[in-house]
Protein backbone atom coordinates (compact mmCIF):
# COMPACT_ATOMS: atom_id res chain seq x y z
CA UNK A 1 0.00 0.00 0.00
CA UNK A 2 2.83 2.37 0.75
CA UNK A 3 4.34 1.73 -2.69
CA UNK A 4 0.96 2.35 -4.33
CA UNK A 5 0.57 5.67 -2.50
CA UNK A 6 4.05 6.72 -3.59
CA UNK A 7 3.32 5.93 -7.24
CA UNK A 8 0.04 7.87 -7.08
CA UNK A 9 1.91 10.85 -5.62
CA UNK A 10 4.47 10.77 -8.43
CA UNK A 11 1.74 10.61 -11.07
CA UNK A 12 -0.06 13.59 -9.54
CA UNK A 13 3.21 15.54 -9.41
CA UNK A 14 3.92 14.84 -13.09
CA UNK A 15 0.40 15.88 -14.06
CA UNK A 16 0.76 19.29 -12.42
CA UNK A 17 1.55 21.99 -14.99
CA UNK A 18 5.08 23.31 -14.72
CA UNK A 19 5.38 27.06 -14.51
CA UNK A 20 6.58 28.48 -17.81
CA UNK A 21 8.35 31.78 -18.02
CA UNK A 22 6.81 33.93 -20.72
CA UNK A 23 8.49 37.08 -22.03
CA UNK A 24 6.38 39.99 -23.19
CA UNK A 25 8.23 42.78 -24.99
CA UNK A 26 6.91 46.31 -25.26
CA UNK A 27 6.50 47.84 -27.77
CA UNK A 28 5.40 44.89 -29.84
CA UNK A 29 8.42 43.13 -31.39
CA UNK A 30 8.94 43.05 -35.12
CA UNK A 31 11.63 42.32 -37.71
CA UNK A 32 13.52 45.52 -36.86
CA UNK A 33 12.72 45.44 -33.12
CA UNK A 34 13.34 41.81 -32.14
CA UNK A 35 12.58 40.36 -28.73
CA UNK A 36 14.41 37.02 -28.52
CA UNK A 37 16.93 36.96 -31.38
CA UNK A 38 18.60 39.91 -33.08
CA UNK A 39 18.85 38.30 -36.52
CA UNK A 40 15.65 36.28 -36.32
CA UNK A 41 15.51 33.37 -38.75
CA UNK A 42 18.32 30.91 -39.29
CA UNK A 43 18.43 31.75 -43.00
CA UNK A 44 19.33 35.38 -42.26
CA UNK A 45 21.69 34.31 -39.48
CA UNK A 46 23.55 31.90 -41.74
CA UNK A 47 23.65 34.45 -44.55
CA UNK A 48 25.14 37.12 -42.29
CA UNK A 49 27.82 34.72 -41.02
CA UNK A 50 28.63 33.65 -44.60
CA UNK A 51 28.86 37.25 -45.83
CA UNK A 52 31.15 38.17 -42.94
CA UNK A 53 33.49 35.23 -43.55
CA UNK A 54 33.71 35.61 -47.34
CA UNK A 55 34.11 39.37 -47.16
CA UNK A 56 36.90 39.30 -44.59
CA UNK A 57 38.87 36.51 -46.28
CA UNK A 58 38.52 37.62 -49.91
CA UNK A 59 39.14 41.32 -49.26
CA UNK A 60 42.21 40.45 -47.19
CA UNK A 61 43.56 38.46 -50.14
CA UNK A 62 42.98 41.39 -52.51
CA UNK A 63 44.74 43.80 -50.15
CA UNK A 64 47.70 41.42 -49.84
CA UNK A 65 47.95 40.88 -53.60
CA UNK A 66 47.80 44.61 -54.39
CA UNK A 67 50.03 46.08 -51.69
CA UNK A 68 52.41 43.29 -50.65
CA UNK A 69 53.00 41.14 -53.73
CA UNK A 70 56.52 41.45 -55.21
CA UNK A 71 55.01 41.43 -58.72
CA UNK A 72 52.54 44.22 -57.99
CA UNK A 73 53.36 47.82 -58.82
CA UNK A 74 50.80 50.06 -57.14
CA UNK A 75 49.50 52.08 -60.09
CA UNK A 76 46.58 54.53 -59.61
CA UNK A 77 43.87 52.03 -60.66
CA UNK A 78 45.34 49.28 -58.48
CA UNK A 79 45.59 51.69 -55.56
CA UNK A 80 41.88 52.42 -55.92
CA UNK A 81 41.05 48.71 -56.16
CA UNK A 82 43.15 47.92 -53.08
CA UNK A 83 41.52 50.67 -51.03
CA UNK A 84 38.10 49.53 -52.24
CA UNK A 85 38.89 46.05 -50.92
CA UNK A 86 40.01 47.55 -47.62
CA UNK A 87 36.73 49.46 -47.27
CA UNK A 88 34.68 46.43 -48.33
CA UNK A 89 36.37 44.51 -45.56
CA UNK A 90 34.84 46.97 -43.09
CA UNK A 91 31.41 45.86 -44.31
CA UNK A 92 32.42 42.31 -43.44
CA UNK A 93 33.42 43.56 -39.99
CA UNK A 94 29.94 45.07 -39.60
CA UNK A 95 28.23 41.81 -40.59
CA UNK A 96 30.46 39.87 -38.21
CA UNK A 97 29.69 42.40 -35.48
CA UNK A 98 25.95 41.82 -35.83
CA UNK A 99 26.48 38.06 -35.93
CA UNK A 100 28.55 38.22 -32.73
CA UNK A 101 25.91 40.31 -30.92
CA UNK A 102 23.24 37.85 -32.06
CA UNK A 103 25.27 34.91 -30.77
CA UNK A 104 26.02 36.64 -27.45
CA UNK A 105 22.36 37.52 -26.80
CA UNK A 106 20.89 34.40 -28.40
CA UNK A 107 17.40 33.76 -27.07
CA UNK A 108 17.55 36.65 -24.60
CA UNK A 109 17.96 39.79 -26.66
CA UNK A 110 15.17 41.38 -24.61
CA UNK A 111 17.61 41.66 -21.72
CA UNK A 112 20.10 43.75 -23.67
CA UNK A 113 17.97 45.35 -26.39
CA UNK A 114 17.44 48.72 -24.71
CA UNK A 115 21.09 49.05 -23.72
CA UNK A 116 22.23 47.97 -27.18
CA UNK A 117 19.96 50.40 -29.04
CA UNK A 118 21.18 53.37 -26.99
CA UNK A 119 24.84 52.35 -26.71
CA UNK A 120 27.83 53.90 -28.41
CA UNK A 121 28.72 50.52 -29.90
CA UNK A 122 25.41 50.49 -31.75
CA UNK A 123 26.10 53.95 -33.17
CA UNK A 124 29.62 52.90 -34.10
CA UNK A 125 28.19 49.84 -35.86
CA UNK A 126 25.85 52.01 -37.91
CA UNK A 127 28.70 54.38 -38.75
CA UNK A 128 30.84 51.45 -39.89
CA UNK A 129 28.12 50.15 -42.21
CA UNK A 130 27.37 53.55 -43.76
CA UNK A 131 31.03 54.49 -44.07
CA UNK A 132 31.93 51.20 -45.75
CA UNK A 133 29.07 51.31 -48.26
CA UNK A 134 29.36 55.01 -49.13
CA UNK A 135 33.15 55.22 -49.27
CA UNK A 136 33.23 52.05 -51.38
CA UNK A 137 30.80 53.64 -53.83
CA UNK A 138 32.85 56.86 -53.98
CA UNK A 139 36.07 54.92 -54.58
CA UNK A 140 34.40 52.93 -57.35
CA UNK A 141 33.24 56.21 -58.92
CA UNK A 142 36.80 57.52 -58.74
CA UNK A 143 38.09 54.30 -60.36
CA UNK A 144 35.57 54.58 -63.23
CA UNK A 145 36.48 58.23 -63.82
CA UNK A 146 40.19 57.36 -63.69
CA UNK A 147 39.71 54.71 -66.36
CA UNK A 148 37.77 57.14 -68.54
CA UNK A 149 40.39 59.90 -68.17
CA UNK A 150 43.19 57.42 -68.76
CA UNK A 151 41.55 56.31 -72.01
CA UNK A 152 41.12 59.92 -73.13
CA UNK A 153 44.75 60.71 -72.35
CA UNK A 154 45.89 57.63 -74.27
CA UNK A 155 43.86 58.71 -77.32
CA UNK A 156 45.27 62.25 -77.22
CA UNK A 157 48.87 61.18 -76.76
CA UNK A 158 48.75 58.06 -78.98
CA UNK A 159 50.59 56.26 -76.21
CA UNK A 160 49.10 53.40 -74.18
CA UNK A 161 50.33 54.79 -70.86
CA UNK A 162 48.41 58.02 -71.19
CA UNK A 163 51.24 59.99 -69.60
CA UNK A 164 50.20 63.28 -71.15
CA UNK A 165 46.96 63.43 -69.19
CA UNK A 166 47.51 65.98 -66.44
CA UNK A 167 44.44 64.73 -64.58
CA UNK A 168 45.97 61.28 -64.16
CA UNK A 169 48.98 62.23 -62.07
CA UNK A 170 49.45 60.31 -58.81
CA UNK A 171 48.91 63.44 -56.67
CA UNK A 172 45.55 63.98 -58.36
CA UNK A 173 44.56 60.37 -57.69
CA UNK A 174 45.62 60.67 -54.04
CA UNK A 175 43.60 63.87 -53.74
CA UNK A 176 40.53 62.13 -55.16
CA UNK A 177 41.03 59.29 -52.65
CA UNK A 178 41.14 61.79 -49.78
CA UNK A 179 37.94 63.40 -51.09
CA UNK A 180 36.24 59.98 -51.21
CA UNK A 181 37.14 59.23 -47.59
CA UNK A 182 36.12 62.70 -46.41
CA UNK A 183 32.77 62.38 -48.19
CA UNK A 184 32.28 58.96 -46.62
CA UNK A 185 32.91 60.36 -43.14
CA UNK A 186 30.66 63.38 -43.79
CA UNK A 187 27.78 61.18 -44.95
CA UNK A 188 28.15 58.66 -42.10
CA UNK A 189 28.56 61.05 -39.17
CA UNK A 190 25.05 62.63 -38.92
CA UNK A 191 23.28 59.46 -37.70
CA UNK A 192 26.03 58.90 -35.13
CA UNK A 193 25.86 62.46 -33.81
CA UNK A 194 22.07 62.67 -33.67
CA UNK A 195 21.55 59.06 -32.58
CA UNK A 196 19.00 58.72 -35.36
CA UNK A 197 18.63 54.94 -35.43
CA UNK A 198 15.18 53.41 -35.40
CA UNK A 199 16.17 49.72 -35.45
CA UNK A 200 18.22 47.30 -33.43
CA UNK A 201 20.54 47.01 -36.44
CA UNK A 202 21.63 50.62 -35.81
CA UNK A 203 20.81 51.76 -39.35
CA UNK A 204 19.18 55.16 -40.04
CA UNK A 205 15.92 53.90 -41.50
CA UNK A 206 13.26 56.54 -42.21
CA UNK A 207 11.12 56.89 -39.10
CA UNK A 208 10.77 60.68 -38.90
CA UNK A 209 10.87 63.61 -41.29
CA UNK A 210 14.58 64.26 -40.70
CA UNK A 211 15.61 60.62 -41.10
CA UNK A 212 13.39 60.33 -44.19
CA UNK A 213 15.07 63.36 -45.76
CA UNK A 214 18.49 61.91 -44.96
CA UNK A 215 17.64 58.52 -46.48
CA UNK A 216 16.16 60.05 -49.64
CA UNK A 217 19.11 62.40 -50.16
CA UNK A 218 21.50 59.49 -49.67
CA UNK A 219 19.70 57.37 -52.27
CA UNK A 220 19.62 60.24 -54.76
CA UNK A 221 23.32 60.94 -54.25
CA UNK A 222 24.20 57.27 -54.73
CA UNK A 223 22.06 57.14 -57.87
CA UNK A 224 23.96 60.16 -59.19
CA UNK A 225 27.24 58.31 -58.61
CA UNK A 226 26.02 55.30 -60.58
CA UNK A 227 24.84 57.59 -63.38
CA UNK A 228 28.25 59.29 -63.55
CA UNK A 229 30.02 55.92 -63.67
CA UNK A 230 27.71 54.63 -66.40
CA UNK A 231 28.21 57.73 -68.56
CA UNK A 232 31.97 57.55 -68.05
CA UNK A 233 32.14 53.96 -69.23
CA UNK A 234 29.80 54.60 -72.15
CA UNK A 235 32.19 57.33 -73.26
CA UNK A 236 35.15 55.01 -72.72
CA UNK A 237 33.70 52.28 -74.91
CA UNK A 238 32.59 54.72 -77.60
CA UNK A 239 36.17 55.86 -78.18
CA UNK A 240 37.84 52.51 -77.52
CA UNK A 241 38.40 52.02 -81.28
CA UNK A 242 40.42 55.25 -81.43
CA UNK A 243 42.70 54.29 -78.58
CA UNK A 244 46.13 52.77 -79.33
CA UNK A 245 46.91 49.20 -78.25
CA UNK A 246 47.19 48.95 -74.49
CA UNK A 247 48.95 46.57 -72.14
CA UNK A 248 47.23 43.46 -70.85
CA UNK A 249 47.30 44.84 -67.30
CA UNK A 250 45.45 48.03 -68.26
CA UNK A 251 42.85 46.07 -70.23
CA UNK A 252 42.30 43.71 -67.29
CA UNK A 253 41.89 46.60 -64.84
CA UNK A 254 39.46 48.43 -67.14
CA UNK A 255 37.39 45.26 -67.56
CA UNK A 256 37.45 44.64 -63.81
CA UNK A 257 36.09 48.11 -63.00
CA UNK A 258 33.35 47.54 -65.59
CA UNK A 259 32.36 44.28 -63.85
CA UNK A 260 32.33 46.07 -60.50
CA UNK A 261 30.07 48.78 -61.90
CA UNK A 262 27.66 46.24 -63.42
CA UNK A 263 27.39 44.00 -60.34
CA UNK A 264 27.13 46.83 -57.80
CA UNK A 265 24.49 48.59 -59.87
CA UNK A 266 22.37 45.43 -60.01
CA UNK A 267 22.68 44.89 -56.27
CA UNK A 268 21.85 48.53 -55.58
CA UNK A 269 18.48 48.32 -57.35
CA UNK A 270 16.67 46.43 -54.52
CA UNK A 271 18.05 48.85 -51.92
CA UNK A 272 16.97 51.88 -53.95
CA UNK A 273 13.53 50.36 -54.58
CA UNK A 274 13.12 49.74 -50.86
CA UNK A 275 14.06 53.33 -50.05
CA UNK A 276 11.72 54.85 -52.61
CA UNK A 277 8.86 52.57 -51.56
CA UNK A 278 9.33 53.78 -47.98
CA UNK A 279 9.29 57.36 -49.23
CA UNK A 280 6.11 56.89 -51.25
CA UNK A 281 4.59 54.58 -48.62
CA UNK A 282 4.03 51.84 -51.16
CA UNK A 283 3.74 48.23 -49.90
CA UNK A 284 6.41 46.91 -52.27
CA UNK A 285 8.12 44.74 -49.66
CA UNK A 286 7.03 43.62 -46.22
CA UNK A 287 9.12 44.10 -43.09
CA UNK A 288 10.70 40.65 -43.32
CA UNK A 289 11.67 41.19 -46.96
CA UNK A 290 13.07 44.62 -46.14
CA UNK A 291 15.12 43.09 -43.33
CA UNK A 292 16.52 40.49 -45.72
CA UNK A 293 17.45 43.17 -48.26
CA UNK A 294 19.29 45.26 -45.65
CA UNK A 295 21.17 42.37 -44.05
CA UNK A 296 21.81 40.10 -47.05
CA UNK A 297 21.61 42.13 -50.28
CA UNK A 298 23.11 45.47 -49.24
CA UNK A 299 26.42 43.92 -47.98
CA UNK A 300 26.77 41.61 -51.01
CA UNK A 301 29.05 43.97 -53.00
CA UNK A 302 31.61 43.56 -50.22
CA UNK A 303 31.71 39.83 -51.12
CA UNK A 304 31.31 39.98 -54.90
CA UNK A 305 33.82 42.78 -55.58
CA UNK A 306 36.88 40.92 -54.25
CA UNK A 307 35.74 37.60 -55.71
CA UNK A 308 35.54 39.19 -59.17
CA UNK A 309 39.13 40.34 -58.80
CA UNK A 310 40.43 37.04 -57.41
CA UNK A 311 38.59 34.67 -59.75
CA UNK A 312 38.44 36.52 -63.08
CA UNK A 313 41.53 38.74 -63.07
CA UNK A 314 44.72 36.91 -64.11
CA UNK A 315 46.81 39.57 -62.37
CA UNK A 316 45.45 38.54 -58.99
CA UNK A 317 46.44 34.89 -59.39
CA UNK A 318 49.95 35.82 -60.49
CA UNK A 319 50.35 38.29 -57.62
CA UNK A 320 49.12 35.84 -55.00
CA UNK A 321 51.35 33.08 -56.39
CA UNK A 322 54.36 35.42 -56.29
CA UNK A 323 53.48 36.52 -52.76
CA UNK A 324 53.19 32.90 -51.60
CA UNK A 325 56.51 31.99 -53.21
CA UNK A 326 58.20 35.04 -51.74
CA UNK A 327 56.83 34.29 -48.28
CA UNK A 328 57.87 30.62 -48.41
CA UNK A 329 61.31 31.52 -49.76
CA UNK A 330 61.80 34.15 -47.07
CA UNK A 331 60.78 31.70 -44.37
CA UNK A 332 63.15 29.05 -45.71
CA UNK A 333 66.00 31.58 -45.84
CA UNK A 334 65.40 32.60 -42.23
CA UNK A 335 65.34 28.98 -41.09
CA UNK A 336 68.54 28.28 -43.00
CA UNK A 337 70.19 31.29 -41.41
CA UNK A 338 69.05 30.24 -37.96
CA UNK A 339 70.52 26.78 -38.57
CA UNK A 340 73.91 28.29 -39.39
CA UNK A 341 73.76 28.02 -43.16
CA UNK A 342 74.54 30.90 -45.49
CA UNK A 343 71.98 31.72 -48.16
CA UNK A 344 73.25 31.87 -51.69
CA UNK A 345 73.58 35.36 -53.13
CA UNK A 346 72.64 34.84 -56.74
CA UNK A 347 73.07 38.51 -57.58
CA UNK A 348 76.71 38.51 -56.49
CA UNK A 349 77.36 35.29 -58.40
CA UNK A 350 75.90 36.77 -61.60
CA UNK A 351 77.96 39.95 -61.21
CA UNK A 352 81.15 37.96 -60.66
CA UNK A 353 80.42 35.84 -63.71
CA UNK A 354 79.88 38.93 -65.86
CA UNK A 355 83.13 40.49 -64.64
CA UNK A 356 85.08 37.31 -65.41
CA UNK A 357 83.62 37.18 -68.91
CA UNK A 358 84.53 40.82 -69.52
CA UNK A 359 88.09 40.29 -68.33
CA UNK A 360 88.43 37.23 -70.57
CA UNK A 361 87.31 39.22 -73.58
UniProtKB/TrEMBL annotation:
Keywords: Glycoprotein, Leucine-rich repeat, Membrane, Receptor, Repeat, Transmembrane, Transmembrane helix. One of its GO terms (molecular function) is G protein-coupled peptide receptor activity. It is found in: Membrane. The chain crosses the membrane at residues 48-68, 80-104, 124-145, 166-193, 213-236, 257-280, 292-312. InterPro entries: GPCR_Rhodpsn, GPCR_Rhodpsn_7TM, Gphrmn_rcpt_fam. Pfam families: 7tm_1. GO terms for cellular component: plasma membrane. The keyword Membrane applies. One of its GO terms (biological process) is positive regulation of canonical Wnt signaling pathway. Residues 58-309 form the G-protein coupled receptors family 1 profile domain. PANTHER family: GLYCOPROTEIN HORMONE RECEPTOR, LEUCINE-RICH REPEAT-CONTAINING G-PROTEIN COUPLED RECEPTOR 5. This is Leucine-rich repeat containing G protein-coupled receptor 5. The gene is LGR5.
Amino acid sequence: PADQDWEDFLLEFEDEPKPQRSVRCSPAPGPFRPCLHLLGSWMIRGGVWLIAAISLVSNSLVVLSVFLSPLSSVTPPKLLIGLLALVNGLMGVWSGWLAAVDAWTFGSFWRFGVKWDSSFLCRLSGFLCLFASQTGLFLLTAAALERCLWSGAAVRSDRPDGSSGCLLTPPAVRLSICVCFLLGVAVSLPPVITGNTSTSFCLPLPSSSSSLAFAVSLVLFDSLCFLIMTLAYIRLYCRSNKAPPTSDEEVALTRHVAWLLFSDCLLYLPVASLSFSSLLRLPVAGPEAAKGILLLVAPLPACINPLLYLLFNPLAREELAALTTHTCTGGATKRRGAAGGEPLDLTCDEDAEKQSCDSTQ
